[in-house]
From TrEMBL:
PANTHER family, per the entry: NADH DEHYDROGENASE [UBIQUINONE] IRON-SULFUR PROTEIN 4, MITOCHONDRIAL, NADH-UBIQUINONE OXIDOREDUCTASE
Chief localization: membrane
InterPro entries linked to this entry: NADH_UbQ_FeS_4_mit-like, NDUFS4-like_sf
Entry keyword annotation includes Membrane: yes
Residue ranges of the region described as Disordered: 1-24
Localization (cell): Membrane
Pfam families reported for this sequence: NDUS4
Protein's UniProt keywords contain Electron transport: yes
Keywords, alphabetical: Electron transport, Membrane, Respiratory chain, Transit peptide, Transport
Protein name: ETC complex I subunit
Length: 107
C-alpha cells in the first residue's frame, strides 16, 4: 500500500493575516507529502495526479493526539515545532496608562 510509504507532516499552522483572535489557533494538522509528481492533462491543461493522500488534511486538538493517530495507523511522520508567535499575551487598554511602563504606547 502507498499509505505506508508516504511520510506525514504534523504541524501547527500559523494564524492567517485576517485572523486577530484565538479561534482555530490551537489545532494541529496532519498532512501527507506528495508521493508522485503532478502531470498536466493534455486535453484540459489542468494539473493533477493519482495521489489521493496529498489531498488529506486531518485536524487534531493536540500534537500528542496527531502522533497517536499516526502510530496507530502505521504512518511515518515528522513533527514541525509550533510557530514562535503562537502564544498571545493578554493585554488590556489600561496597560497603556500604567505607571512605570517601559514599552511604547499602543492603541
Amino acid at each position: 500500500m502507498s499509505r505506508h510509504r508516504a511520510i506525514a507532516r504534523i504541524s501547527m499552522p500559523p494564524r492567517s493575516a485576517m485572523q486577530s483572535g484565538k479561534a482555530k489557533s490551537g489545532r494541529w494538522i496532519l498532512t501527507f507529502t506528495p508521493s508522485e509528481a503532478k502531470t498536466i492533462d493534455p486535453l484540459t491543461g489542468w494539473s493533477g495526479s493519482g495521489d489521493m493522500q496529498s489531498q488529506l488534511r486531518l485536524s487534531f486538538s493536540s500534537q500528542e493526539a496527531a502522533e497517536a493517530y499516526a502510530r496507530a495507523n502505521g504512518i511515518r511522520y515528522e513533527v514541525e515545532p509550533a510557530p514562535a508567535g503562537s502564544v498571545i499575551k493578554p493585554k488590556s487598554y489600561a496597560d497603556n496608562f500604567r505607571y512605570g511602563r517601559s514599552e511604547n504606547w499602543t492603541h
